[in-house]
Amino acid sequence: MGAFKAYDIRGVYNRDFNKDDVYKIGFFLPELLNTKKVLVGRDVRESSPEIFAYLSKGIEDAGADVYDLGISTTPMVYWATAEFGFKASVMITASHNPKEYNGLKISRENALPVGFDTGLGQLERWLQERVVLPASEKGKTVAFDKKAEYLAFQRKWVSPDADLLKIAVDCSNGMSSIFIHDLLGNKPVYMYDELDGTFPNHEANPLEPENIKDICRLVQETKADIGVIFDGDADRVMFVDEKSRFISPDLMIAVLGDYFLKEKGLKGKVLQDIRTSKAVRDYVEKYGSEMEMWRVGRAYAALKLREIDGIYGGELAGHYYFRDFNYSDSGLMACSILLGIFGRYKKEGKKVSEVIDSIATFANSGEVNFKLDRKKEAMEAVREFFCAEEKPTAFYDFDGYRIEFKDWWFNIRPSNTEPYLRLIMEATDDNLLQKKLEQAKRIILGFAE
Known about the structure:
- This protein has helices at 19-32, 48-61, 74-83, 120-129, 147-155, 180-184, 213-222, 251-263, 278-285, 298-307, 331-347, 352-359, 375-389, 430-445, and strands at 9-12, 37-42, 65-71, 88-92, 101-108, 141-143, 167-170, 189-191, 226-230, 237-240, 246-247, 269-273, 290-294, 312-314, 320-322, 328-329, 363-364, 368-370, 394-396, 401-404, 408-414, 421-427.
- It is of the alpha/beta class.
- The chain starts with 8 loop residues before the first strand and ends with a helix.
């Protein structure tokens, strides 16, 4: 079965995994996490009801109870896991993947992620090696609707300053639609806010340029100050400015510093992933905070933020983690805080584009993907070439390589979820960036033959 990944269990349903696999996952999960109660939420993909049914049957046959959170966002499952003291939870979702995909995001006590190295690998081995022997005393399913309580929590982060903005919102037909109207009210212009697990308008992945065309157009048509777009399960949020330019999500880590570090005056560490612009570190450190860099993905980021007791953190992929959210990520919470910040900037006469342009002081390539099998060899060749040319000022090797030089840096890493080698570069000016990017591309493409 090819569905067990670094961060979760995910794939094309009935190809990479099926209902029998889901049943076994449910059966062995209570033993893996040593509990008799498992919290379960789900998105609205067409396969989610069947997956819920077989997951629940497996949990019940293991002698444990299912606490049914119902239709929910992924962050709502994280919140409820910690808030109500569950030792195990599952969100049935494939997040941003196309409609034929589905999956399971598993968390343990305190909403800590269960990745391949922290339990999923063991679970996969049990599925392959062990026989299911149902308990003599079966568990039961308990209705556990906590939407009202979760909405009350999320409302705490909504600022009246957001009302100063003209906002356009694309819900991608995903799970943010459950709460977004209650949080932002009727003033924003909404699109694709009907729950539909077939994603009829565009795939629920805002990182793909094709999928943000509609929100860019809506911003132009409505003359909005800002555009907001969520992914399928609402653990990620991204933005476009009033010029309909996509804002690189890592730059929002810097903007969040205006709230946590400047306005609230908090002191402590902020977490970024290894792909984050140097401009973010420069911005955060001016408030006296210390930036910590770590690996890509919630399975690593949420654990690291807790370990360092960081104030908040973020990723290039649009995940934002908060100490006040059990060190987990929430698209809605990030959206509310950021809209408040930009509302206050509008009071000062500053547009969203002006705020972002003042932060983004480096030329950046964005993430460039290469589909090839010889990823490791290509990575080593790139590292050797550039380190022979110039002495690095910093070297990180915990998620591929991030190698920094006097006027530029690059990160090259294999994807944990897709068959790609990913490259990102940044330099003090565009001419230098283009030169280094072309050199790297020539080396990498030599391994694609």
